[in-house]
Amino acid sequence: MSASATISEIIQSASVASLGTVTVDGGPFVSLVTIAATTPTTMVMLLSGLAVHTKNLVVSPKTSLLLVQPGGEGGDPLAGARVSLVGSTIRLDRGEDTVARSTFLAKHVSASMYADFGDFSFFEFTVDHAHLVAGFGRIETLSADQL
């Protein structure tokens, strides 16, 4: 399977990711979030304005997501395929989040209980490049255009 196909498979199947943001003082911050892919190079997240990662996104849209191929979490976690996505994240205004909302809530049905709370918003992550590690010796970096 090509690197592009492997990355696409991971993006489409992933429902959680490690989200890396930049703190107010310029340091790194990583948290766990739920995601849903809307295109091969965009994913959406439903985030609370109270969360540290959301406050970080207000300061800097620079973002990284680490996605692990399903099944890669068990056994030897370093043996499974994973992809680090680097890009940027923006908050979507209510009313302009229809596709994000429907895609995300189809994948995360229980989120409909809080999706309309005032402090929650949908955020869209756009890939600039992807770094795939798919086993020993199989490491490739692809641009968004190559996905």
From TrEMBL:
Q: Show the Pfam families listed in the entry.
A: CREG_beta-barrel
- At the top level, the lineage of the source is Bacteria
* Boundaries of every CREG-like beta-barrel domain copy: 10-145
Cross-referenced InterPro entries: CREG_beta-barrel (IPR055343), HutZ (IPR014419), Split_barrel_FMN-bd (IPR012349)
Put simply, this protein is called Pyridoxamine 5'-phosphate oxidase
User: Which organism is the protein's source?
Assistant: Rubripirellula tenax
